């Protein structure tokens, strides 16, 4: 749904301005249905939707992978991707994003008028002539101009790490003000003219007589920058003419305007039709190159057969994989960089999809797929070994209790895990990887990480999957801690923990119908919940249970837990039916920096508690 917020907002704002101009025109003689309006309609549709897709594709394919590689090589990743504002309240992010982005745009806009080659890129927007100034021309601009804006904004925005909601608010509000600034409406905003831009003020920015030295009113949303820096001008009447000297011969259609100033390179070609065709071809080529169709990197299969079904329409970055096992081994050292930049407190327990792809084929990497056999056979990350619940939890006595340390050791050795291995666990949206991570951290001194987003994120990034039963692993030599007690934590340990931590919060992470007792799990002895428990469905720690299985950002997780009565100093016990769903919530708390001695995942969970002669709710 988030993908439709801006297009729908653009349509709503455009419709509103069309109606306002129809009934309250500033210049009554100006026609709404004017010549060349079709060109501005194409500008609106293309620049309002498709341009974002085009530039995002070109940047993620041809620019950002190389920028990120250079930053990583220079040790600058954490300094640049700092996410300094990520933990601020949303309202603060909205305000600061508005001010920061708008001021940077004001600076860029200044440069577009004062630097000759940048002015050539900006001319398309100033090709608005007398009788054309209306809301829709706010989207008459060249995509090359947008590249300048985006390039300047990229580093400040990734450094601050604003939430998408804050940037979306800026985009929608900026569109509203931009439409108003160009609209055929008699608005000056009264005393607000010193804060917000307006049609009366912005029309002077399009003054025909303006030059690199005399052009005024560069503000996009806020006019205050112009008043502060002495570039404001707001007479009571509009300028005599708008445009620029030479606008009469400037291209007057979408395709020619989009590729200006390419025409300067071939002054002998004067045909409007010829340049329109050339413009269409250039745009088509750029659209084609936004994804590397011909140079698509192949996912290393590591000796396995590719699965019958593969991701379509998405392609990995050109340098997504390492060219050799040695380089893949080196990539393991960069595991957790994205999690660290995102603000998680234990980045050593997380790996992102790009980080894993770069390390695919490393000697010490062991991928463990925690899914049923049939789903594993349909498609898994190349090189993965499979385990499932029965391999690490028992069905005896209490269903779902963790197996003994010795049994876990044999499971890991069968997967080829050595003492110096890096283990990455993944699933396809379920809580099983978090459960196995929690189980192993209690008994093994082993670098164990969870793939953020799991198989869904792997395929969403365009990486291919292998099919079949997987390759046979050479037995490993991993050992458990000595002594290594079984990780199971039963009710006696849990009740003792609660007694030692007055005010401890019990989080029931099952479904709402299990929590309220309206449905009994098949492996539970009774319906209900532990008295005093608070409900928090485990899937709420994910960004989206259907479309994005990554862990929520730290600020969103903190808001979620605060909403459920869990503060930074709260002792917490998580439980579900058998300690699996609750392990995902435990992992989320762990990533917020909750103290290990103030957290507990009740291994026995409701499977054990429902079998005990203890009170239940409701």
Would you spell out the secondary-structure blueprint of this structure?
Layout: H1 5-23, H2 37-73, H3 77-80, H4 90-114, H5 116-122, H6 143-160, H7 164-182, H8 199-202, H9 224-229, H10 254-258, H11 272-289, H12 325-331, H13 337-342, E1 350-351, H14 353-359, E2 365-370, H15 373-378, E3 385-387, H16 389-392, H17 405-414, E4 422-426, H18 432-441, E5 447-451, H19 454-460, H20 491-500, E6 505-508, H21 512-515, E7 534-535, E8 542-544, E9 548-551, H22 554-563, E10 572-575, H23 581-591, E11 599-601, H24 605-609
Parallel strand pairs: 1-5, 2-3, 2-4, 4-5, 6-7, 6-10, 10-11
Antiparallel strand pairs: 8-9
Helix pairs in contact: 1-7, 4-5, 4-6, 4-7, 12-14, 18-23
Key phrases:
single chain; 618 residues; alpha/beta; Oxidized Rhodanese, domain 1; 3 domains; 5-stranded parallel beta sheet; 24 helices
């Amino acid at each position: 749904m988030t993908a439709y917020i801006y297009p729908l907002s653009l349509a709503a704002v455009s419709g509103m301005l069309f109606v306002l101009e129809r009934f309250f025109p500033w210049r009554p003689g100006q026609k709404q249905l004017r010549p060349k309006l079709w060109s501005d309609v194409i500008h609106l549709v293309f620049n309002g939707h498709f341009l974002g897709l085009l530039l995002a594709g070109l940047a993620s394919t041809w620019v950002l992978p190389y920028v990120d590689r250079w930053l990583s090589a220079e040790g600058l990743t954490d300094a640049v991707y700092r996410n300094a504002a990520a933990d601020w309240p949303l309202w603060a992010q909205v305000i600061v994003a508005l001010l920061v982005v708008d001021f940077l745009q004001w600076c860029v806009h200044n440069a577009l008028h004062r630097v000759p080659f940048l002015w050539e890129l900006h001319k398309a927007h100033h090709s608005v002539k007398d009788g054309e100034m209306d809301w829709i021309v706010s989207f008459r601009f060249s995509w090359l101009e947008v590249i300048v804006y985006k390039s300047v904004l990229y580093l400040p925005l990734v450094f601050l790490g604003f939430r998408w909601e804050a940037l979306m608010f800026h985009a929608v509000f900026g569109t509203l003000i931009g439409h108003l600034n160009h609209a055929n409406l008699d608005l000056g905003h009264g005393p607000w003219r010193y804060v917000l831009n307006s049609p009366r003020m912005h029309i002077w920015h399009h003054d025909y007589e303006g030059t690199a030295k005399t052009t005024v009113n560069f503000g996009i949303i806020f006019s205050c920058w112009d008043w502060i820096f002495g570039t404001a001008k707001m007479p009571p009447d509009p300028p005599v003419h708008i445009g620029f000297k030479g606008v009469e011969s400037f291209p007057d259609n979408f395709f020619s305007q989009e590729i200006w100033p390419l025409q300067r390179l071939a002054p002998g070609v004067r045909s409007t039709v010829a340049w329109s065709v050339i413009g269409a071809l250039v745009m088509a080529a750029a659209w084609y190159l936004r994804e590397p169709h011909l140079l698509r990197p192949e996912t290393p299969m590591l000796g396995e057969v590719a699965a019958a079904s593969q991701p379509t329409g998405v392609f990995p970055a050109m340098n997504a994989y390492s060219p050799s096992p040695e380089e893949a081994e080196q990539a393991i050292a960069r595991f957790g960089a994205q999690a660290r930049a995102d603000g998680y407190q234990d980045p050593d327990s997380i790996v992102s999809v790009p980080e894993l792809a770069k390390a695919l084929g490393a000697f010490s990497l062991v991928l463990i797929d925690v899914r049923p056999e049939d789903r594993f056979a349909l498609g898994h990350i190349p090189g993965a070994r499979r385990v499932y619940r029965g391999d690490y939890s028992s069905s005896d006595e209490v269903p779902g209790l963790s197996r003994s340390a010795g049994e876990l050791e044999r499971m890991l050795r069968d997967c080829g895990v050595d003492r110096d291995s890096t283990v990455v666990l993944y699933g396809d949206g379920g809580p099983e990887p978090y459960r196995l991570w929690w189980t192993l951290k209690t008994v093994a001194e082993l670098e164990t990480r969870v793939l953020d987003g799991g198989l869904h994120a792997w395929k969403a990034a365009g990486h291919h999957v292998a099919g079949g039963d997987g390759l046979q692993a050479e037995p490993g030599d991993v050992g458990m801690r000595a002594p290594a007690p079984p990780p199971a934590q039963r009710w006696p340990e849990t009740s003792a923990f609660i007694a030692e931590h007055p005010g401890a919060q019990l989080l029931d992470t099952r479904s709402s119908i299990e929590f309220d007792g309206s449905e009994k799990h098949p492996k539970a002895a009774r319906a209900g919940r532990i008295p005093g428990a608070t409900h928090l469905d485990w899937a709420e720690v994910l960004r989206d249970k259907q479309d994005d299985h990554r862990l929520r950002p730290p600020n969103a997780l903190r808001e979620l837990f605060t909403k459920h009565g869990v503060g930074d100093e709260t002792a917490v016990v998580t439980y579900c039916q058998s300690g699996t769903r609750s392990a995902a919530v435990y992992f989320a708390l762990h990533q917020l920096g909750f103290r290990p001695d103030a957290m507990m995942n009740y291994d026995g969970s409701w499977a054990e508690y429902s079998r005990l002669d203890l009170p239940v709710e409701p």
